[in-house]
Amino acid sequence: MFTTTGSRGLYKAPLSKGLLLVLNGLTVMLTLLPQYQELFVYNLQAVTHQHQVWRLLCGRLVCLDVKDSFCSSLLIYNFRIFERRFGTRKFASFLLGTWCLSALMDFLLAQAFQFLFDYEVEELPAGLLAPVFSLFVPFYLSIPRMPVTQVLGHIHITNKSLVYIVGLQLLTSSPFMWLLALSGLISGGLYHSNVLRLQKLLFIPSWVSRIGRCILEPLFSSSQPSSETPLGMGATLDIQRQQKMDLLDQQLLLAQYNEARRNTRQQPQPGLLQWTRLFPSLRHRGQNRPPMQPRPQAQTQPSTQPPLLDNSPVAEEQVGVHMCVPVYLYTSAASHHECSISSLSGILMKYSQVMQLLSLSCLVFFFGPQVARLVEMGFSRTDALEALRASNNDINMATNFLLQH
Predict the structure, then answer these.
(1) How far apart are CA 181 and CA 171, in angstroms?
(2) pTM of the model
(3) In sequence order, what are the residues at sequence separation of 6 or more whose Cβ sits closer than 8 angstroms to the Cβ of residue 134?
(4) Which of 86, 127, 185, 326 would you label with 102, given CA atoms 20 to 30 Å apart?
(5) What is the β-pairing status of strands 42-43 and 123-124?
(6) Class of the 351-404 domain?
């Protein structure tokens, strides 16, 4: 819905979180205690004629209108991307510089409006509104516009359209809100372009930044979201997408490496290389073969001669000739089949050993320097080869895999 700003939430945006909590909390308290709202009215006449300079501080921080507070909170939440890109100190310096410049611009624009239209501006909407409008300057200049959809075939909806709609809603909330918006845009343009070296004059000192980092940042810091994949924090959407693709590739390689190690633990085999994992067709070679049917025994033809029951030599000779011929033939076929199987298994074992030696020599020749470096670091040769194979011979990725496991 809003512009892509990396991780959701207020992670790495403690200043934005503090502004949202403190300013909205004060707005709710003033809504419940209306007798104190007079102290936070942004009255220009009281500042110029009655010299109530403190109204520049109170009247330009807390919103008295709940609608203005809600719209400005949405914009601050979306503009937290600048705190992540610039850093908290530079983001706070931008808000401080535009806040001071917009205070001067408010009086100049009020005087110009009185001179042109003969109308004196007494009050302006209260709240941190001008610095919020000033953030539209870097938002327009540095955030790329990505088309999302079209309405009626001509109106293009981009990733920045909703932010401009919220800003337009805040602009039309009161009659003189346009004066604060113009003051904020002018201040943001001057500070962003560093006119008159304003960034060197209006900034947060380093000692103030250190105090805030020690005292306030632990109160408003947010933990990293654990329910989502961390996205890129690049300066543009293209860089963020590239970082996300690199992260997905790294996760894929890590998953492949974990799967390879899991298979190695579950199916230990002798030798350095796991040939059944590299060539799964050899492992399942005999599973799809149809079951062997037992060889049918040779049926003897029944003799037409009557059985000889006597113990004559002729009877013994006839029975011996009649029974020994089929048994001899069956025994010869079985022994020949066993010899063929044993010879084939011996050939396959020798072929597997030769291929293991050849592959081992090729891997040692290909991964030799990398394996040597990993072995010097304390890893075993087997783990080093597995990691290099899973990481496509990237020694940095392989080292990360071995250190993480």
Answers:
(1) 7
(2) 0.58
(3) 94, 98, 102, 184, 185, 187, 188, 191
(4) 86
(5) antiparallel
(6) mainly alpha
